Amino acid sequence: MGGTDVAGTGGTDDGQAASDDAGDPSSSPDPVPEARSQPQPQPAVRGVCAELCVRVAEPQPPLSGWLDSMLVGVAEAAGLDEGRLTVVVVDDAQMSDLHRQYKRQDGTTDVLTFDLREPPGVGSVEADVVVCFDEAVRQSSAIGHDVRLEVLLYAVHGLLHLIGYDDVDPTEAERMHRREDELLVAVGCPAAYAAAGRSRID
Fold this sequence. Notes:
Low-confidence stretches: 2-16, 22-29, 36-45
CATH architecture: 3-Layer(aba) Sandwich
CATH class: Alpha Beta
Mean pLDDT: 83
Shape: globular
Radius of gyration: 15 Å
Oligomer: single chain
Number of strands: 5
Largest sheet: 5 strands, mixed
CATH topology: Collagenase (Catalytic Domain)
Strand order of the largest sheet: 1-2-3-5-4
């Protein structure tokens, strides 16, 4: 995946904003506060809450209701018993702006993860995971699977960065991507990473 910048998913830019895939919390501890400015559906399992903010035209079938529910199931399968995740779905232009602001890199990426905990990595998960819908469309078209599955894969990648996984080292990257597929299968989805034969999620 493109990094998890603890600030994203696109490579592992594990930063303090989250993962590339993470941003710099010093410049803004919460880069997408408007995602929580309006009431959002909050499916919960064992205290895990997922909120979804879609800033692109909804595909058909829609992401809303499906992605947040799937992510709650993934969190449960990963062993999380409490926490809050806000997933923000953006287009290339919005992702490029965030990538430049928090990672100082030009161009889009697939996912950026912002860890909102103080200190980062300690306590129940609280984070914003920003995923790029345009990148998901490109990748899913090339691979031949549902765009919603690709978006979910990016969100899962961001979640794993938040619970200690990394993909900078090849061995760790293999472990992380294997876990992504295990979690997708656990919630009734097909494996999306290994089956596509890609080398990494950026």
